[in-house]
Amino acid sequence: MNAGHDAEHTADAAHGQALPGREEVADLADWVGIASVSSDPDRADDVRESARWLVGTLRRAAFLRAEVWETDGLPAVYGCRPAADSDAPVLLVYSHHDVHAVDPSEWRITPPFSPLRDGDRLYGRGASDAKGQVMCHLWALGAHTAERDAPAPAVTVKYLVEGEEEVGSVHLADLLSQHADDLGADVVMVSDSMLWSLDEPAVCGVVRGSVTATLTVRGARRDIHSGAVSGAASNAAFELCRVLDLLTDESQRITLPGFYDAVTEPAPAHRQRRGDPCRAARQGLRRARALLRNGPAGGPLARPRRARGDARAQPRNTCADPVPRRTGRRARQGRAAPHPPAVSETSA
Ligand SMILES: [Zn+2]
């Protein structure tokens, strides 16, 4: 489903897919209109408004819990909608509601925060990264409960939608440890991914991480005579190229010692599926549909058995609030939250 489209992404693609109704797209456009740019301290209030907007939307979508989780930086949103069966599997959807900074002069179709629907596409900053994806799950959940003709979904659905993804998820690790009780899940779906084409539904199975570093190479302090000494005095730009080239081998494997020590090799079955990602996506969707249609009993996501006495065996899908809400230190002190340092673009 092509729920949204950042205006700088102008790839042509097959159209004609059934889009959500006008009302739903208007909802998404409303959210895209909030300039939740996490790298701009002047937009911190917009990021907060974006979080409140999502909480309201989750509440209207029958989420039993929907709340803003403050951090020492910008807020995340948590939501939980329980299955009727307290033993049903738990799905946690991770995504983000902050967006990249913009250069308005590059937005030719529409200003970045004045969303525009044109045919099957909605243009605006954040429409495809990742507010559209967040809404897609909500629309799917609504369609699922309507098809089941039941007030509750077949699986418990939780949301964690952070507000600092585009600046390096500065406080995500803190959130995960502070709210571990709320975030327990059998499956985590990273919502912040994409479709290769509108004709191929996709469930993204693997994404790469990213590492940022600063490398400084110092050379001569001033221009030196090319004929006299440039052979002996190497050029800093060339040295930098040499160092960067050493980081990978000819098959693009990272050559840093120890880099792969903590990396788990994919299972053989997983490697096979990588040959045809579309087929893997279709299989995944078939499994998901079967689960949603038939419920968890004997389904592919049957809840793993846990040892007696294991604390994690407590039902986690009641959406109960097990501990008092813990909020960021600065929030407790009633001070305005500072903004996290701006860092370069992070992918997905
Ligand atoms: Zn993203």
Helix-strand blueprint:
Blueprint: H1 22-32, H2 44-60, E1 65-69, E2 76-81, E3 90-96, E4 116-118, E5 121-123, H3 127-148, E6 156-162, H4 172-178, H5 180-183, E7 187-190, H6 236-246, H7 268-274, H8 277-294, H9 329-332
Parallel strand pairs: 3-6, 3-7
Antiparallel strand pairs: 1-2, 2-6, 4-5
The site of zinc ion has 6 residues, from helix 3.
Summarize the structure.
This protein has a domain at 22-208 and 278-332: Zn peptidases (Aminopeptidase, 3-Layer(aba) Sandwich). It contains 9 helices and 7 strands, in the order ααβββββαβααβαααα. It has helices at 22-32, 44-60, 127-148, 172-178, 180-183, 236-246, 268-274, 277-294, 329-332; strands at residues 65-69, 76-81, 90-96, 116-118, 121-123, 156-162, 187-190.
